[in-house]
Each structure stands twice: as C-alpha cells, then as structure tokens.
Automatic annotation (TrEMBL):
Residues 51-259 form the DUF58 domain. This is DUF58 domain-containing protein. CDD domains: vWFA. InterPro entries: DUF58 (IPR002881), vWFA_dom_sf (IPR036465). It comes from the Bacteria. Pfam families: DUF58.
Length: 301
C-alpha cells in the first residue's frame, strides 16, 4: 500500500462535520429511497437448500428429488431460498484530478456522498461492504464487513485520505481487486476515468465481478470556457502551462480530445456490458441512481 499523509486538527474537525452530515443524509436516502431498489437490483450469489415439498403442476422437473419421491411414493421437489448476502466493494479514485470542483463541490465530495448512500443501502440489506482507495497505487483497503463504525470509517477515509503520489492508475486498481477478492463480489467503481490503458483491465474486472461504473465529472473539464489566457496546473503532476482559451482552435482541439476519450470509455462499457452512471458535480445524482437501480431490477424481473 502507498504511504498516506495525515491531516491537521482543524482539517480533521472539518472532515468529521462532513462525515456527520453525510451520515444523516445517506441514512435517510438509503432508508427512504434506495433500500428496496437496491434489494431488487442486486441479487444474492446463489441459492441455499431450504426444504422438500410435494410436486405441483408447473414446478421445475429438474428440482425433483428422486430419493424422497421413492420413499413417499409421490413426486417431491427441493425448495431453495436466495442466498441474500452480497460482498460489496466500493473502489474510489482519490487521485489529484478528483479534488477538482469548479463550483460548490469537488468530485471527491460527490463520490463520498454516492459511496455513503450505497454503503448504507447495502448495510440495510445485510450485505458486507468494503472500501478501496487508490491513486497511483492502492492506498487503503478495508475488507468487506458489517457495522455502523465500519461504514462511518469508510466515509471518513474517502474524505480525509491524501495520497503522496496523486497520479491515477486505474489498471492497477483493477488488478488489485482481482487479486484480492477471491469470491465473486459487487464492485462500485467510482472515478473520473481520466487515465490511459485501463480499458482491458476494467473489462477483466467485470468478467470476474459484477461491476458498476460511476463516473464523476466536472462540466468545466469537458468544455473549456472562453476566459482568455489562463495558467493551468495539472493536479496530478504539478506541471503548469499557459493556455489561451480565447483561441477557438484551442477550445475545439480540447473538445475533440474530450469527445474521443468519452467515446472510448462508452465503447468499453458497452463491450463488457458494464452498467454505468455519469454524475456531474453541479447536478443531482439521485435520479441517476434511481434509474440505474430501476433498469437493473427490471432486467432481473
């Protein structure tokens, strides 16, 4: 794991205020809005044998138990109950680009809210939830577990953890998950997906685990505003450059690069059948989560 820097006391107090605010909000949303939808959207990993009962017209013939049938001189079938408990991992990108926010909230703050809602929804359904924070390297891994203290620690770590190396390595995060989680799990992968050469690794992750991609973005990153010459700093490398945003050719070139990057990402999601959400920092993400759950539950119906 990569080394993590600590926060000073004033920062810790501010973070704890944010954690409490998120706890109250996420508990309410998960209880009132998402608990039932979550249950319908994400099924258990199998079936557990429950009992025998006499065969009825329309039952699956493959579930007939021939030993019991022979003893009772009548056809009996095995009945099952869903193995409800899921193992859930929320993987959150905390690289330098995720600290950006042009208005009220940064991408990391939005990610923390979404993660909190998902974690409490999973908890209400009796699922174990874990956390992976990553940037250039995997930084913090909390194995899936239950309990309020565990969930609150997850939220606090998303807001407070600061990587030494703020670059992004999505492929490395995918590899870490695949090597660490032995049983099939539900992965919520939260990132801005601003990186290179990760698409095959993300696909490999989705083949082993049920993977949901939640892309958090800031509108200013996708449409360069016309504000004249600006000094831009790369949040991950610290490199600075002066860009003349008044130049229409510069804005057009930037737009083409953004479109190309997003098209490649969409192609990956489609190819590997990865359900995904695009959440902007200046918009309400709740309708997007509702739609995600609704689509998945209708698919499972």
């Amino acid at each position: 794991m990569a080394k993590v820097t600590t926060e000073d006391e004033s920062s810790i107090e501010e973070i704890m205020r944010k954690v409490h605010h998120l706890e109250v909000k996420a508990r309410r949303l998960s209880r009132e809005s998402f608990s039932g939808e979550y249950h319908a959207s994400f099924k258990g990993q199998g079936l557990d044998f429950e009992d025998f009962r006499e065969y009825q017209h329309g039952d699956e013939i493959r579930f007939i138990d021939w030993n019991v049938t022979a003893r009772m001189n009548a056809p009996f079938i095995r009945t099952f109950r869903e193995e409800r408990e899921l193992s859930v991992l929320i993987a959150v990108d905390i690289s330098g680009s995720f600290d950006y926010g042009s208005k009220h909230y940064s991408k990391r703050e939005i990610a923390a809210e979404i993660a909190a809602v998902l974690a409490f929804s999973a908890r209400h359904n009796g699922d174990k939830v874990g956390l992976l924070l990553f940037a250039k390297e995997p930084i913090l891994y909390l194995p899936p577990a239950k309990g309020s203290k565990h969930t609150l620690r997850m939220i606090r770590e998303i807001l407070a953890t600061t990587p030494e190396n703020k670059q992004t390595n999505l492929a490395g995060a995918c590899d870490f998950i695949n090597k660490t989680l032995k049983q099939k799990s539900l992965i919520f992968f939260i990132s801005d997906f601003i990186d290179n050469d990760f698409h095959k690794k993300l696909g490999a992750l989705s083949q082993k685990h049920e993977t949901i991609a939640l892309r958090v973005f800031d509108p200013f990153e996708e449409n360069l505003p016309n504000v004249g010459k600006v000094n831009l700093t790369d949040p991950e490398t610290g490199e600075q450059s002066i860009v003349n945003t008044a130049n229409s050719n510069v804005r057009m070139a930037y737009e083409k690069l953004t479109i190309r990057r997003l098209e490649a990402l969409q192609k990956t999601f489609t190819k590997y059948k990865i359900d995904h959400v695009n959440a902007a920092t200046d918009a309400d993400y709740l309708p997007l989560l509702h739609q995600l759950f609704k689509t998945r539950s209708s698919r499972h119906a």
